[in-house]
């Protein structure tokens, strides 16, 4: 019987909630959480600018694992400093130069090898938040080993000269009131929607684009104690959408 340490929609931990542990995988560290039973299905979680140690992202790892998936969040920053709430946005562009979400191939390959060889995973998906949402798009365009992906409020990689194609089913989730789209200095994590007409023209696999009402950037990974009552239904809906998409394709 499947262990379910979280209520399906809310992400509220039950008393027997599963907790993960840290592992060293070649040159990077990662946070891993497994269900209490064997499964060959896995999900990679790509963290946001606050990094793999951020409590909110580990909460999401535990949540997904609670639905029956080996779930792993690698340190895509390779030990370098994540963005901190005390940092100044004027420095963000310079910080991004050494934290490029388009340069995650080596780390992703290491994690895929670990999941297959050490965890017995045969079907693997990827979920990314903000910075990690961009990384999801990069991997979904180039890595056929990934069964599906969910990109949550990650800026859409814009290149009008290239076909908007995806190798496997991908779900794009955004907040309607994403403030980052209005700030040029943080536009690299901003809310830019995919070009639906290009996806429709070139994409041969399932895709979905959904905008959550009244929600700001980063809404979907909030822990229960940080949720405002008026936002809770939309957060729950986003998480249910994410899990349903994963269950459909993994």
UniProtKB/TrEMBL annotation:
Query: Mind telling me which residue stretches traverse the membrane in this protein?
Result: none
Major site of localization recorded for this protein: cytoplasm
Kindly list the GO CC terms recorded for this protein: cytosol
Which residue ranges does the record assign to the Dienelactone hydrolase domain? 28-249
Q: Where in the cell is it found?
A: Cytoplasm, Cytosol
Q: Which is one Pfam family of this protein?
A: DLH
User: What's one GO MF term for it?
Assistant: hydrolase activity
InterPro entries in the record, alphabetically? AB_hydrolase_fold (IPR029058), CMBL (IPR042946), Dienelactn_hydro (IPR002925)
Q: Which family does it belong to?
A: Belongs to the dienelactone hydrolase family.
Protein name as annotated: Carboxymethylenebutenolidase homolog
Q: Which organism is it from?
A: Phaetusa simplex
Lineage at the top is: Eukaryota, Metazoa, Chordata, Craniata, Vertebrata
């Amino acid at each position: 019987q499947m262990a379910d340490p979280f209520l399906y929609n809310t992400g509220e931990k039950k008393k027997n909630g599963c907790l993960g542990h840290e592992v060293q995988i070649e040159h990077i560290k990662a946070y891993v959480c497994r269900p209490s039973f064997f499964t060959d299905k896995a999900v990679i979680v790509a963290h946001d600018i606050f990094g793999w140690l951020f409590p909110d992202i580990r909460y999401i790892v535990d949540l997904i694992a609670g639905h029956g998936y080996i779930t792993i969040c690698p340190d895509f920053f390779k030990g370098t400093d994540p963005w901190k709430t005390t940092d100044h946005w004027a420095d963000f562009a310079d910080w991004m130069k050494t934290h490029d979400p388009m340069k995650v191939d080596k780390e992703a390959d290491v994690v895929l090898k670990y999941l297959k060889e050490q965890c017995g995973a045969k079907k693997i998906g990827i979920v990314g938040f903000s910075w990690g949402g961009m990384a999801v798009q990069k991997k979904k365009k180039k890595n056929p080993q990934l069964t599906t992906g969910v990109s949550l409020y990650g800026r859409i990689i814009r290149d009008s000269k290239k076909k908007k194609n995806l190798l496997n089913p991908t779900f794009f989730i955004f907040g309607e009131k994403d403030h980052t789209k209005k700030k040029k200095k943080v536009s690299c994590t901003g809310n830019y929607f995919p070009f639906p007409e290009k996806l429709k023209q070139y994409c041969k696999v399932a895709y979905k684009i959904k905008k959550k009402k009244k929600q700001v950037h980063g809404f979907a990974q909030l822990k229960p104690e940080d949720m405002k009552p008026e936002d809770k239904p939309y957060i729950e809906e986003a998480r249910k959408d994410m899990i349903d998409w994963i269950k459909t394709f993994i």
